[in-house]
């Protein structure tokens, strides 16, 4: 199947049957999520993988008792940085430089730009920015699951603070953002399984523009990023 065929096949599964996912399929989904792009390549998030039934039962209790959480094979919890600071950003850049065989100072100019920019915002904005990056990885996991014919249910309906308490995320620099049960649909008990997939018509969803359609905002920036970094 092509990617588009896989995406037509998938839906937000409402009832799962508890069957275990083969490890190689789970690893494939996790690797797709790991390879997702992120702002400045910082990968400001991580994934917690849970299959322990007792823990899933507790998570269900703070997720409005959604059955997919306990009927899934594995639950992916996406957790993102709670803020940006020099040591945290430097650690990532140093790792990147080590992997590329470059001196640590190679990215100092760019790192300064990032930190200077984020310093103009508060910690809530920083946490929100990092959370948005985790959603890119989240989407890649959903697409990879569809490719593997694994059902997945995107869930934001849970009590974030209680989940952070349960998973002992407080004090680690991470906050939960979104969760993804993975498993197999139980067709006979899923009211959504045979429903038509509905999306906005292409002509309403996609808008093509030219310069004539754009507003005149003047010359907002005349320098390219490389020049800006050197300052």
Describe the structure.
The chain is of the alpha+beta class and 231 residues long. The chain contains 10 helices and 4 strands. Helix 2 (23-34) crosses helix 7. The longest helix has 25 residues, at 123-147. The termini are far apart. The mean pLDDT is 94.
Q: Mind sketching the topology for me?
A:
Blueprint: H1 3-9, H2 23-34, E1 45-50, H3 53-61, H4 68-71, E2 74-81, H5 86-100, H6 108-118, H7 123-147, E3 151-152, H8 160-166, E4 174-183, H9 202-205, H10 225-230
Antiparallel strand pairs: 1-2, 2-4, 3-4
Helix pairs in contact: 2-7
Query: In what range is the share of β-strand residues?
Result: 5-15%
Shape: globular
Total E-strand runs: 4
Tell me the major beta sheet.
Answer: 4 strands, antiparallel
Cα separation of the termini: 50 Å
Low-confidence stretches: none
**Portion of residues in helices?**
40-55%
Instruction: List SSEs in N-to-C order.
Output: HHEHHEHHHEHEHH
CA radius of gyration is: 21 Å
Spatial arrangement of strands, main beta sheet: 1-2-4-3
Contiguous helical run count: 10
- Class computed from helices, strands and strand pairing: alpha+beta
Whole-number average pLDDT? Answer: 94
């Amino acid at each position: 199947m092509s990617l588009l065929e896989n995406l037509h096949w998938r839906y937000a599964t409402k009832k799962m049957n508890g069957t275990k996912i083969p490890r190689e399929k789970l690893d494939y989904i996790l690797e797709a999520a790991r390879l997702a792009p992120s702002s400045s390549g910082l990968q400001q998030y991580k994934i917690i993988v849970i299959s322990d039934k007792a823990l899933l039962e507790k998570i269900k209790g703070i997720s409005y008792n959604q059955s997919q959480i306990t009927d899934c094979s594995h639950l992916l919890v996406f957790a993102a940085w709670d803020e940006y600071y020099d040591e945290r950003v430097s650690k990532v850049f140093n790792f990147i430089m080590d992997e590329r065989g470059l001196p640590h100072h190679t990215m100092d100019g760019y790192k300064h730009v990032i930190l200077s920019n984020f310093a103009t915002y508060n910690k809530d904005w920083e946490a929100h920015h990092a959370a948005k990056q985790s959603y890119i990885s989240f989407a890649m996991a959903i697409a990879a699951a569809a490719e593997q014919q694994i059902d997945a249910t995107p869930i934001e309906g849970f009590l974030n603070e209680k989940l952070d308490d349960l998973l002992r995320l407080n004090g680690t620099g991470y906050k939960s953002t979104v969760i993804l049960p993975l498993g197999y649909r139980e067709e006979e008990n899923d009211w959504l399984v045979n429903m038509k997939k509905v999306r906005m018509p292409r002509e309403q969803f996609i808008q093509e523009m030219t310069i004539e359609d754009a507003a005149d905002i003047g010359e907002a920036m005349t320098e390219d990023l490389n020049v800006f970094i050197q300052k």
